[in-house]
């Protein structure tokens, strides 16, 4: 009974938060509704026994992606009125994509229920093994090369972002750390004894 109540609570809040995330006029409010939707989706994952996915939702999506969206929205001066100006022009295309995705979901659900896939829904791992341990075993044995390849792709993206950020720009005075460390106090400080009423010559 408690599990059923928790499921309907998390599911209702997730759907409402998703709708409010899309329909909110303030972008900051949209990001906050998105964070609420992620938290409740993590609760749903805990109910079905997928603790690893719930942890990913909280740590990766809420802790990194959603917070990054929030800081980007708050720090950048974006004219959202200009962004919404073309909403009516792209509305037919958006509705067509919504209908296409809905048809794909219905077809996939029907194939899952009626096809041969529905005959083997149980996981190949024993019940005594937690799902986090089972995922770790698969990643580091069967899908090791794919996992390493994904890490290399992220590394290349990180290096590319650093190279684009630290490109050489004209008219910028670079800092010479070696020259600053080698400078003696006598080169930076000059002791003078001016007479009374006489200024200091620079």
Structure characteristics:
202 residues; mainly alpha; Four Helix Bundle (Hemerythrin (Met), subunit A); 68% helix; 3 domains; 9 helices
Radius of gyration: 29 Å
The termini sit apart by: 85 Å
Name the beta content range.
Answer: under 5%
Instruction: List low-pLDDT spans.
Output: none
Number of strands: 0
* CATH class (first level) name of the largest domain: Mainly Alpha
What is the N-to-C order of secondary-structure elements (H for helix, E for strand)? Answer: HHHHHHHHH
Number of discrete helical segments: 9
CATH superfamily of the largest domain: NADH-ubiquinone/plastoquinone oxidoreductase chain 6, subunit NuoJ
**Mean of all residue-level pLDDT scores:** 80
Instruction: Tell me which CATH architecture of the largest domain applies here.
Output: Up-down Bundle
Helicity, as a percent range: 55-70%
What does this protein look like?
This protein has 202 residues and is mostly helical. It has three domains: 1-82, NADH-ubiquinone/plastoquinone oxidoreductase chain 6, subunit NuoJ (Four Helix Bundle (Hemerythrin (Met), subunit A), Up-down Bundle), CATH 1.20.120.1200; 87-117; 128-166. 68% of the residues lie in helices and 0% in strands. It contains nine helices and no strands. α1 packs antiparallel against α2 and α2 (27-47) packs antiparallel against α3 (51-75). The longest helix has 25 residues, at 51-75. It is elongated.
């Amino acid at each position: 009974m408690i599990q059923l109540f928790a499921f309907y609570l998390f599911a209702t809040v997730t759907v409402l938060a998703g709708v409010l995330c899309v329909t909110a006029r303030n972008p900051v409010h949209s990001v906050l509704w998105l964070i609420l939707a992620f938290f409740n989706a993590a609760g749903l994952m805990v109910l079905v026994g997928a603790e690893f996915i719930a942890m990913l939702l909280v740590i990766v999506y809420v802790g990194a992606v959603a917070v990054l969206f929030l800081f980007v929205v708050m720090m950048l001066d974006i004219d959202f009125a200009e962004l919404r100006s073309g909403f009516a022009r792209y509305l037919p295309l958006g509705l067509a994509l919504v209908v296409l995705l809905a048809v794909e979901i219905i077809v996939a659900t029907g194939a899952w229920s009626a096809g041969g896939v529905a005959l083997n829904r149980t996981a190949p791992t024993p019940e005594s093994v937690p799902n986090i341990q089972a995922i770790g075993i698969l990643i580091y044995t069967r899908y090791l090369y794919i996992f390493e390849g994904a890490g290399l792709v992220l590394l290349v993206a990180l290096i590319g972002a650093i190279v684009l950020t630290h490109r050489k720009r004209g008219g910028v005075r670079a800092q010479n750390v070696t020259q600053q460390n080698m400078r003696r106090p006598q080169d930076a400080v000059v002791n003078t004894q001016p007479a009374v009423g006489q200024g200091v010559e620079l």
